[in-house]
Amino acid sequence: MVEARDDNADAPIRLGMVGGGEGAFIGAVHRMAARLDGHYQLVAGALSADPDKARRSGAALGLDPARCYGDFVAMARAEAARKDGIEAVAIVTPNHMHAPVAHAFLEAGVHVICDKPLTTTLEDARRLAAAAERSGLVFCVTHNYTGYPMVRQARAMIAAGELGDIRVVQVEYPQDWLTTDLESTGQKQAAWRTDPARSGAGGCIGDIGTHAYNLADFVTGLELKELSADLTTFVPGRRVDDHVQIMLRYANGARGLLWASQVAPGNENNLKLRVYGTRGGLEWRQEEPNALCYTPFGEASRRLTRGSGGVGPAAARVTRIPGGHPEGYLEAFATIYAEAAAAIRAARAGRAPPPDVVYPGVGDGVKGVALIEAALRSSAANGQWMTLAR
Amino acid sequence: MVEARDDNADAPIRLGMVGGGEGAFIGAVHRMAARLDGHYQLVAGALSADPDKARRSGAALGLDPARCYGDFVAMARAEAARKDGIEAVAIVTPNHMHAPVAHAFLEAGVHVICDKPLTTTLEDARRLAAAAERSGLVFCVTHNYTGYPMVRQARAMIAAGELGDIRVVQVEYPQDWLTTDLESTGQKQAAWRTDPARSGAGGCIGDIGTHAYNLADFVTGLELKELSADLTTFVPGRRVDDHVQIMLRYANGARGLLWASQVAPGNENNLKLRVYGTRGGLEWRQEEPNALCYTPFGEASRRLTRGSGGVGPAAARVTRIPGGHPEGYLEAFATIYAEAAAAIRAARAGRAPPPDVVYPGVGDGVKGVALIEAALRSSAANGQWMTLAR
Amino acid sequence: MVEARDDNADAPIRLGMVGGGEGAFIGAVHRMAARLDGHYQLVAGALSADPDKARRSGAALGLDPARCYGDFVAMARAEAARKDGIEAVAIVTPNHMHAPVAHAFLEAGVHVICDKPLTTTLEDARRLAAAAERSGLVFCVTHNYTGYPMVRQARAMIAAGELGDIRVVQVEYPQDWLTTDLESTGQKQAAWRTDPARSGAGGCIGDIGTHAYNLADFVTGLELKELSADLTTFVPGRRVDDHVQIMLRYANGARGLLWASQVAPGNENNLKLRVYGTRGGLEWRQEEPNALCYTPFGEASRRLTRGSGGVGPAAARVTRIPGGHPEGYLEAFATIYAEAAAAIRAARAGRAPPPDVVYPGVGDGVKGVALIEAALRSSAANGQWMTLAR
Amino acid sequence: MVEARDDNADAPIRLGMVGGGEGAFIGAVHRMAARLDGHYQLVAGALSADPDKARRSGAALGLDPARCYGDFVAMARAEAARKDGIEAVAIVTPNHMHAPVAHAFLEAGVHVICDKPLTTTLEDARRLAAAAERSGLVFCVTHNYTGYPMVRQARAMIAAGELGDIRVVQVEYPQDWLTTDLESTGQKQAAWRTDPARSGAGGCIGDIGTHAYNLADFVTGLELKELSADLTTFVPGRRVDDHVQIMLRYANGARGLLWASQVAPGNENNLKLRVYGTRGGLEWRQEEPNALCYTPFGEASRRLTRGSGGVGPAAARVTRIPGGHPEGYLEAFATIYAEAAAAIRAARAGRAPPPDVVYPGVGDGVKGVALIEAALRSSAANGQWMTLAR
Q1: Fewer beta carbons within 10 angstroms: which end of chain A, N or C?
Q2: How does DSSP classify residue A375?
Q3: Touching chains, A (3+ CB pairs < 8 A)
Q4: ipTM of the complex
Q5: Partner-chain residue, chosen from C298, C302, C304, that has the shortest CB–CB distance to A309
């Protein structure tokens, strides 16, 4: 169970945040995730590029005004100089700021928890990964769906061979919030996510396609060999893709489809993964995350539920409450934070991270950016099969 | 309501059957479909290519031994010569026999109800279509899923513009029955369906891919512009594809994915269609066919149910019993038979068929064969975009 | 599989029908059920008490005008006198006519298939049962939900002890069609079903409460010891109950609840049964009848599906088509007809009925009427515990 | 949205906890709920009646050893004497300790957040309620299911008349964890919950029956007039009931059933509420809490989802993240804590609590105990109708 996993007697990790001020969405999510298990204490922030807003946002969160910074450069410098400076920083800005902010804090010796996609270009991603590796610091990318217990269960079952050899991967992430040109109404989330200068060249592919890819990658462990993509922009005037369909070929011969859409009415965050092998199948859906459908070939299908006896240690480790009491998105997000905390605490103590800790790292972040790049490349070439650049 | 739709006082249509003897699957389905609404009476058959089996099968069905034929040529000739000869024939043989049998009965002036895919080659399909058109006879191809009331409802809603302009089509038909090499065990269905000499060059694409395509085609009415296909054979030794993934581009700019598989454990006949437009979406699944999920953009999703007040005349016409009492596969199949009956009776009376009668015709059959051909062509060309030959 | 079960070469059973003329609901259901498997041929009818309507209704069904009778007495007499007279009669009138019609045909030596509830009073029910037993004829009461394959599967699993000792029975049948005073609009179904002179003293308890009770009785085989009922009439002016709640105590110590309602908006025919024992549970719902949820204690829950390998012979016997192709209400109804046909054919041949044939008999009909009587009695006594009269 | 609702700049509320040491379940839940929104800081505890365990448990949570007390009396006294003493206490002990602990802290001027059922006897409950009212302090009883956003939505819709006059209430809470005599294995939760000395005279009725009742009460606002109960103990040797069935009559004429069971295999925490009125129905299930099924009479049923546009302010107020990202049990629990925090902060500032704050109070706790008492009384009288004592 998560709460008892770490030694909470150990003082909480001092956390800073860049981005996430008034009106932001994901900043509040990161804060709740950081609070849930008590592993972190938020003590500093550069919450907005607008200094007034940064100050107001910090005050609303009870931060010491002296530690509400107007920009991340000042914050990195000042916190590095404090004896009680932050140990970790959460980066929750629009995508184009991930790289510069992350570099600044890595240079300041601060562990990084960064939202996805890692960067807006593959070159930036590689450079950042190299810096992260040189630093020896913890670098966590919040591909948060990997934090769901039943996703861990799925991964463990596949790793244990319960599905046999994997043949088919079906992953999809439809949404509907960009069915109309919401960006023209001034809605903040829509505005930056459809602006290539802030989100990168990918729209839907970057925002949710990467999540879908990461989920399939995490659960199956298969190596993607090549892809054929058809990206579309349906809403007139939109500057990035809002619909993604990709055919996948894996190195072991498996085949797959990745579908992501932001223009599919009736879908909120309907991320779903289905995997089929020679011996059975699995199905998991983010909107009902506490169950995993397991279909052993030739037998009745089974509904495995989080917290129940039929579920193994990989899921149990990241489970907080008994079966039938649903855990949700914030708990999965908090699990990523808890796993990063375990690694940070191990670093603090000069120990290696616990062996069973799993959190998406900078390498996963690079893979996500490589997916965006390859999908854009393939789509521009009318669906020609492309390999992911390394 | 179906039962009262036609004038049952009119004598039942005299029906013959080719194929469908002992051990067959689809023949029994056709017979139940023909019986349910009382429009047909089975009076003759060439139920097997094996004369003994043909006789035994006919006897078990109560046929007059004199009308249990050893081959379809004899049957067509003899029935044409009888005053009380059959008016229609149901062709339920393996695929490679569809064309010769259909030609024989068309030449004998008999209406045809033929299973799908229409033929094993596109050339045959076109020739048969031409013959059917020349004959002036009713030619029905049993793309039976179009008989479901809620599929009719979906079609009517899209035609009425309730979804706005269609942008996205997602259709899938996963099964699991060919996960292993069942054909090597002597199982009759598996044997002929994986034998190119009897099923045609397509395996999964012909057997169920055509159903998925037909369903999307029927419901959306969109013109398919081109496709990029990746067909796979997973089971060692299998001679046809058992897994299909296709990217679709429609003439109006819509995009889509078609996935069909016979190696996806846990899926029985999990045909599902999702369509999204500028104003809303629809979702329908064959295994729970009495409901249609309608998701108007920005509103709560709605569950429309067969037989309820919220459902329009296109569905009501083909509904037999009130809502909450499920209708199934046989009822939908029977609806195709009932619609063909209406057309045959109109022909009998020298009238035009009733204007609201909808049944898949020979043109739909040709489209299905064209899909197979284009998918095979594209897959052989490593997924190159191909148009459907006409 | 149903189609092949009987020797169809044997001539169809000559069937008559009383009731079920124009505008009726259940008559058409009986006719489709009789046709589906080819065991019956409808040859005579007294389809309406109104002679003109009787004639018109018969003509629409293609009956010989000479065998369209104006009343059931004439029909019983005339058919008994014919050499090719009916062998069986389907009684599909309002409830108050079941007894007189059934008596008339039993006396004429005709097998009876009668809708439920058997009669409008318990005294009538017992008298009819005695007559049926004396006659030696087949007497089938169409508690049709027992015809669903997965209901058969549930019964077989409980009989085999897979649930251990049964502790809890939860059965419910909510509808919504009488939420308003539909009877005052002239709707025919509502009019007679809420008229004590035609439906009997029970409203909801008789119409659907008996189905719920029969289903629990059929599946569990438990003996009901006593009940405490609270019947309510919610719609002003209605003359019978439209809402039923009953606490159940079984002879083995099991407990249960029976809920039936005709005023629960959003429920069409939402019959559901849940049974729990010391070793596991089962759940089945009529609106998704092709699956049975099986929950062995301490293990993952399983979804058993009709037509799949995990399902036993009791279900397989009454299955027509493979898994994933849904069967529905008409198929289950047809199974009752098919089982009655097997018994009638055995009688025709002077044989005992096949040992595995299961159809609800006159004894089940009496039990249903006893339930109505006891529930009315208990409710009138403010919920006092009552035993079912025998 | 919850996070922004209160002024977080205001210092967190200093919280103590009684109970909830090593091996406890609900204590950890309370702590996560208290942490999620940042309104509380846990600073003191009497976490176990075993002083060593109390110390160890406190250390694991990072508490100051000086504030890890061996008993609640000492804790109340010492904390009251500190300038930085606790402002609120969470009582998470077995039921029999709720009353003495709550009295001690009320006397010490500390706000109380107490688990349910409030007390083990109705007399104790009334005395405690009187003390709470005299104190003027906040007294929150964690009937946590009322914290779910879609439960708030249901309540608001009924209050607004969207269902018309309520006729039918169906509430059920089946579990399976006590299907066997788990208490004899030493499992801590089972041991105290089946021990009348610690849980009170009610077993299942107290542990989960009260939750079911409270949920129906909260959502419908109907006054319960009388009940007829049948409580059963199925597991041999068990000292309290493990199965509850109750018929309900409401003051407005509505009828209902309450079913709770701890011996229903396959049910984890399957709390479900259905309410039907003259104009429509609602259905909500705790295991899929982010949706509410709304069935307006005569229209298609609708699926309202948390965080979507179709949901009103009562739900939106207690929503943290957008639709499609599921919230769960901890979030709902945290909402109760957040609402209590708003009241406590208002008290701190000498203000009245915000008008829209809804949390279950001591009066709700008394109602729950009255339900237990009346159900036991009715069941002992063979189901005689009983009113709830006041």
Answers
A1: C
A2: H
A3: B, C, D
A4: 0.96
A5: C298
**In CATH, what class is B149-320+366-380?**
alpha beta
Residue C45 — left, alpha, or beta (φ > 0 → left; ψ -120 to 50 → alpha)? beta
End-to-end CA distance of chain B: 37
Rounded-to-integer distance, Cα B342 and Cα D212, Å: 55
Phi-psi region of D257 (alpha: psi -120 to 50; beta: other; left: phi over 0): beta
Domain ranges, ordered by start, for chain A: 2-145+339-359, 149-320+366-380
d(CA C52, CA C66): 13
What tokens does B39 get? 């429009």
* Minimal-distance CA residue of chain A relative to D42: A38
Confidence of residue C22 (pLDDT cuts 50, 70, 90): confident
A3 pLDDT above the threshold of 70:
no
Which residues of chain B carry a pLDDT beneath 50?
1, 3-9
**Tokens encoding D230:** 């049948």
In the block, tokens 């079941």 appear at C98
Asked if B381 and B210 count as a contact pair (C-beta separation under 8 A), the reply is no
Tell me phi and psi for residue B55, to 5 degrees: -65, -50
Superfamily of domain C149-319+366-380: Dihydrodipicolinate Reductase; domain 2 (3.30.360.10)
Please, what is the angle between helix D26-36 and helix A26-36, to 10°?
A: 150
Segment C206-233 shows an average pLDDT of 98
Q: For D114-165, what is each residue's pLDDT tens digit?
A: 999 999 999 999 999 999 999 999 999 999 999 999 999 999 999 999 999 9
Return the SS3 of C165: coil
Structure tokens belonging to residue B5: 């739709």
> CATH topology of C2-145+339-359 equal to that of C149-319+366-380?
no
Cβ separation A302–C304 shorter than 8 A = no
Closest-CA residue in chain D for C169?
D264
Q: How confident is the model at residue D7 (pLDDT cuts 50, 70, 90)?
A: very low
DSSP string, D68-101: B-SSHHHHHHHHHHSTT--SEEEE-S-GGGHHHH
Distance of CA D287 to the CA centre of its chain: 16
Residues of B in contact with A293 (CB under 8 A): 266
8 A C-beta contact, residue C138 and residue C386: no
pLDDT surpassing 70 at residue D3: no
Dump pLDDT digits (tens) for A163-184: 999 999 999 999 999 999 999 9
- The CATH homologous superfamily to which domain D149-324+366-380 belongs is Dihydrodipicolinate Reductase; domain 2 (3.30.360.10)
Alpha helices (runs of H) in chain D, residue ranges in sequence order:
2-5, 26-36, 51-60, 72-81, 98-107, 122-135, 149-159, 188-193, 196-199, 204, 210-220, 313-316, 329-348, 362-380
With a cut of 70, say whether residue A9 has pLDDT above it: no
A18 — phi, psi (to 5°)? -115, 125
Q: Write the class of the CATH domain D2-145+339-359.
A: alpha beta
Residue B154 forms contact with A (CB below 8 Å): no
Q: Are the CB atoms for C115 and C142 separated by under 8 Å?
A: yes
Query: What residues form DSSP beta bridges with A113?
Result: A90, A140
Q: Cis omega before residue C289 (within 30°)?
A: no
β-pair partners for B171: B258, B273
Look at residue C6 in the predicted model and tell me its pLDDT: 39
Cβ–Cβ contact B304 with D under 8 A = yes
Q: Does C285 touch chain D (CB under 8 A)?
A: no
Eight-state DSSP code of residue C146? G
**Measured distance CA(D332)–CA(D327) in Å, rounded:** 8
Using the beta-carbon criterion (under 8 Å), do B265 and A168 form an inter-chain contact?
no
The pairing of beta strand C255-261 with beta strand C166-174: parallel
